[in-house]
Design goal:
The chain is built from five helices and 17 strands. The chain is α+β, with helices and mostly antiparallel strands. Strand 12 (183-187) and strand 13 (191-193) form a beta hairpin. The mean pLDDT is 97. The structure holds zinc ion (ZN). Zinc ion (ZN) is lined by residues 112, 114-115, 196, 242-243.
Amino acid sequence: MRVVRAGRRFLTVELGALTVTMLSDGETAMPLTHLRGADGAPLADLAGADVVDGKLRLPVRAFAVQGPGGSLLIDTGAANAWHPGLGQVGAALAEAGIGATEITAVALTHTHVDHISGLVDNDGGLAFPNAARIFVATEELAAFHAEPRMIPAVPRLVPLEQGDGPMPGVTAINAPGHSPGHMAFLVDGRLLIWGDLVHHAAVQFAAPQVTWVFDDDQPRARSSRLALMAQAARAGWLVAGAHLPDPGIGRIERKGAGYAFHPVTR
Ligand SMILES: [Zn+2]
């Protein structure tokens, strides 16, 4: 892996014949009570937390995987559907020199608002008109259909299952808990784009048992995080996440009772 290009809102790494570009959608902040302990109550010990104006910093990211098999966008950001600091995936793509019309497929880690909204632009049109297929986990198709904003995207839906390849070199891996069909994507067998496995890196790498208030099934989210962190550390995979600190891609290693995250250098 090597970093080939970087700008304010993006960073591109090369993995063999593929490139992976981190696209920043912007940043918001969440109440301190969103981190949860083993008992489900707000986490008492917030030592080490990344706090901005009394809240937990929450960056939002999407990723573009490009290669001979096409250009796959993994997640799409919040567009204008959530917090005002977000909705910058389009600007990040432009900064990275990737045209919206170059995107040939989209895969969603899950169907929450900060991951799916960017599929449809603010005027109600498809933001990626040449994305012929939009991959959504089978368990989350109903949630996708229930979102009025997503109506233009429905005809392009393709159900996604563990082991499927939304493009050559990319494999879907079940990571349920944050949502029922939450998916991670392994790129070139060595970079795991893990969606919302971690919401607050400053706490959850050192203490991976800590959950997030919006984890749909807290024990299941915890066990998916523990299992995939262990697998990534053991295999020496790079990890990338929708809410990891800049630039959203790095190495993971065992440290004490948990892990440490080492972001790649810009
Ligand atoms: Zn999220």
